[in-house]
């Protein structure tokens, strides 16, 4: 099949799938009510896209950094899963140690909580790394529950270099996120009304 250009020259027509398999320089954007985050992540994986996926709903904001189609970092405002809480839950640090580190973080120049805890000898680097990884993974799972809001993918060079990066298989990430979403829906439907 061919299409005719303005100059009358015939050009081969590209298959439609080729047009959507690459993310263009324009931002990809849409409504999370129409496209679930898992679908957006799969599209970005197929396109081997690199950039920043921004999500927003009711004043909450999140971003997932994507490198060659794989999520490598995630953060969200108001996230219920924070690194310090994971460390306390695992018994790596006490609540008092967390509060003291958060106070130092607020008082000083921008320093990461994990770096402060390691520098103070309150936690080991591998404990912090595991907690950050767990918090990011849970953040992505939580974002997969969003059924309203908007998303926008901003393509670009390699995402900012983070000390700790997600290294998850996207298919496993999506399956686990969907499993957790089902469990959350089951809990909500079985809870008695207030």
UniProtKB/TrEMBL annotation:
Q: Which InterPro entries match?
A: PatA-like_N, T2SS_E_N_sf
Question: Which Pfam families does this entry report, sorted A to Z?
Answer: DUF4388
Q: Where is the PatA-like N-terminal domain?
A: 29-184
Q: What is this protein called?
A: DUF4388 domain-containing protein
**Annotated organism of origin:** Eiseniibacteriota bacterium
């Amino acid at each position: 099949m061919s299409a005719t250009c303005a100059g009358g020259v015939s050009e081969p027509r590209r298959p439609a799938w080729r047009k959507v398999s690459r993310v263009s320089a324009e931002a990809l954007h849409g409504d999370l009510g129409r496209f679930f985050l898992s679908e957006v992540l799969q599209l970005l994986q197929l396109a081997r896209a690199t950039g920043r996926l921004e999500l927003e709903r009711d004043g909450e904001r999140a971003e997932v950094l994507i490198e060659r189609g794989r999520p490598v970092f995630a953060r969200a405002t108001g996230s219920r899963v924070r690194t310090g809480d994971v460390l306390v839950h695992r018994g790596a640090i006490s609540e008092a140690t967390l509060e003291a580190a958060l106070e130092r973080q607020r008082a000083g120049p921008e320093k990461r909580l994990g770096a402060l805890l390691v520098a103070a000898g309150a936690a080991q680097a591998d404990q912090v790394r595991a907690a950050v990884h767990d918090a990011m993974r849970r953040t992505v799972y939580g974002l997969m529950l969003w059924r309203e809001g908007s998303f926008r993918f901003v393509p670009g060079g390699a995402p900012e270099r983070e000390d700790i990066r997600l290294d998850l298989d996207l298919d496993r990430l999506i399956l686990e996120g969907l499993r957790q979403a089902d469990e959350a829906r089951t809990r909500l439907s079985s809870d008695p009304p207030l």
